[in-house]
Amino acid sequence: MWIYEKKLQYPVKVSKCDPMMAKFLIEQYGGADGELAAALRYLNQRYTIPDKIIGLLTDIGTEEFAHLEMIATMVYKLTKDATAEEMKEAGLGAHYADHDKALFYHNAAGAPFTATYIQAKGDPITDLYEDIAAEEKARATYQWLINMSDDPDIIDSLSFLREREIVHSQRFREAVEILKEDQGRKKVF
Amino acid sequence: MSKTLSEEFYRLMEQLQEVDFVLVELTLYLDTHPEDYDAIKQFNEFAQKSMVLKQQIETKYGPLQQYGNSYSGYPWNWDQPPWPWQM
Amino acid sequence: MPTNRKYYRPYIGPCDPCPPIRVKSYETPPQLYLGFQPYGLKQFDPSTALRKGTLWPALYAPYTNPYEPREEEE
């Protein structure tokens, strides 16, 4: 089972009321390479991967939910006190018409989240390559989001999240190396 | 209902975030380096630090976890703000 | 130590409508080079690690917006 902890992984701060940035950030909430897709992708692959990799998929998948909450926190803070007029001006009129301030699992262009974002081939190497690609795509998305923000606090949180993609990619690359090794052969460092 | 959060709360929370982040990093590292003795030693040291800090926060500010991983005050204080996105 | 950012000069066409960006860049962060992480790599202290998003300087690759503001005259 999972245990929720009433704590953010990183102290997220937002210094500017900027609902338009929320519209862009939602890409990492319900987009193809977002945190929800990542969490579901890794946790789902655990059932068909060799035992040595299950722990890693569990732990990275779980961390992705902490990142999902960081994104939600930023969106919440960016839109919490925006008026209907301000939402409209920020390009969130269509969102507001359907959801008011509610978060919704869709991407920045409004396409709803779909299970087709998540690949599960059942071949361990194929799935890990998928995971490495997913981490690199999320890293790139964070770069484009950083390029569009001028709030140092938002950039700070996005930089943290981007760095996490680098570390996850590193671990998945190591997982590939572990699977490439001959059974029973000891690693020498 | 919501008490003004003291600077101490934020300070303690950030300390916990720091300690727990080291644990996240070591967890992922150990998932691919299960025989690194020094890293396991460091992991256990930080697990201890995290437990002490959590207890300190929970005594003053209420439970961090649910399902019996934290003690409850009276009345039931799980609902007491701030939730993570409200901090 | 490899650099985290590489540069290239894209082709500039005579009929391109926007003022050209002459040098473009892309990121090549450390996980592309590190290989299997060795034991005992130098660590950040916990506070710095949280701020940077990793415990290990060897995996830290800061990112900044590569776009420069457009200059008024060519």
Structure in words:
The complex is a heterotrimer of chains A (189), B (87) and C (74). Chain A is an all-alpha fold and 189 residues long. Helices cover 64% and strands 0% of the residues of chain A. Chain A has seven helices and no strands. Chain A starts with 18 loop residues before the first helix and ends in a 9-residue tail after the last helix. The model of chain A has no long low-confidence stretch (mean pLDDT 95). Chain B is an all-alpha fold and 87 residues long. Chain B has one domain (7-63, 73-86). Chain B starts with 6 loop residues before the first helix and ends in a 26-residue tail after the last helix. The longest helix of chain C is centred in the middle third of the chain and has 7 residues, at 46-52. The mean pLDDT of chain C is 94. Chain C is mostly loops. Chains in contact: A-B, A-C, B-C.
Secondary structure elements and their pairing?
The complex is a heterotrimer of chains A (189), B (87) and C (74).
Chain A: H1 19-25, H2 27-30, H3 35-45, H4 51-79, H5 84-99, H6 124-148, H7 152-180
Helix pairs in contact in A: 1-4, 1-5, 3-4, 3-6, 4-7, 6-7
Chain B: H1 7-32, H2 37-61
Helix pairs in contact in B: 1-2
Chain C: E1 5-8, E2 24-27, H1 46-52
Antiparallel strand pairs in C: 1-2
Structural class of chain A: mainly alpha
Domain module count of chain A: 1
What are the secondary-structure elements of chain A, in order, as H or E?
HHHHHHH
Summed up, the helix count of chain A is 7
Radius of gyration of chain A: 18 Å
Number of strands of chain B: 0
Q: Return the average pLDDT of chain B rounded to an integer.
A: 94
Rough shape of chain A? elongated
CATH superfamily of chain A: Ferritin, core subunit, four-helix bundle
Strand fraction of chain A equals under 5%
